[in-house]
Amino acid sequence: MIRFGIPSDGALHKDTMEFLSGCGLDIVRPNPRSYTGEIVGAPGIIVHFQRAGDITVMVENQSLDLGIAGYDRYMETRDPQIDTNVLIGELGFGQCTLSFAVPEDWLDVSNLADLSEVAHQFRERGLELKIATKFPRLVSRFLVTRGVNYFSIVPTSGTLEAAPAMGYADLIVDIISSGNTVKQNKLKTINGGDVISSQACLIANKSTIESDSKLQTECDVLTKAINSYLKSRT
């Protein structure tokens, strides 16, 4: 029995259910509060409804064999020492970008080089540029590889757009789709400030599946159905 995790909440839940239905993988859930379900015609697959942010970790610790997650969240939480693998990287939904957004009244800041200069100015005054984000690892790596070293990350799980106005951060790095929320909170994106482009992807615990021929068979059923659907749409 292969354990397949899909998002139970957030924007990815509805899109994932619709996508799998389009693949011919309709999920039967005993009741809306149940955390498990089945796929019609695929008795060897049990579906687990989990928080989108937890799926990568659960695949890594072998609580799940397969999962659908946002590529951004996968890259943020994955452990490079564990043999997880992206089986299908572009499922065609959940598209978004993890981007920097600074206050609109920072008139001299329009790109990453300008932001680097601001970080230096803060440093000269004995301060650090405070960045609020839910993706501390991705943001830190992004900045350091581009020569921006003077900053501090303010991890948060709440609403980010209010952080500069409330004063606990100078700017934010957040998931941006339409950009309307950013504008409504008097923030703006900057050139070169896109950390990562993301969409839903299918991930797997490679070592677990490859060690069991039955799991490999069920995995193939799932991936073939998904790939066939993706090909039919293009």
Q: Using the coordinates shown, work out and report the CATH topology of the largest domain.
A: D-Maltodextrin-Binding Protein, domain 2
**How many domains in all?**
2
CATH class call of the largest domain: Alpha Beta
First CA to last CA: what distance?
32 Å
Within the largest sheet, what's the order of strands?
2-3-4-1-5-12-6
Quickly list its features.
single chain, 234 residues, alpha/beta, D-Maltodextrin-Binding Protein, domain 2, 2 domains, seven-stranded mixed β-sheet, five-stranded mixed β-sheet, 36% helix, elongated
Structure overview:
With 234 residues, the protein is an alpha/beta fold. The chain folds into two domains: 2-94 and 199-233, Periplasmic binding protein-like II (D-Maltodextrin-Binding Protein, domain 2); 96-197, Periplasmic binding protein-like II (D-Maltodextrin-Binding Protein, domain 2), CATH 3.40.190. The chain is built from nine helices and twelve strands. Strands 2-3-4-1-5-12-6 form a seven-stranded mixed sheet. Strands 9-8-10-7-11 form a five-stranded mixed sheet. Strand 8, helix 5 and strand 9 (151-155) form a beta-alpha-beta unit.
Brief description of this entry?
It is built from nine helices and twelve strands.
Write the layout of secondary structure elements.
Layout: E1 2-7, H1 10-22, E2 27-28, E3 36-39, E4 42-50, H2 55-60, E5 66-70, H3 71-77, E6 84-88, E7 96-103, H4 112-124, E8 129-133, H5 136-145, E9 151-155, H6 163-166, E10 171-176, H7 180-184, E11 187-198, E12 200-205, H8 206-210, H9 213-233
Parallel strand pairs: 1-4, 1-5, 8-9, 8-10
Antiparallel strand pairs: 2-3, 3-4, 5-12, 6-12, 7-10, 7-11
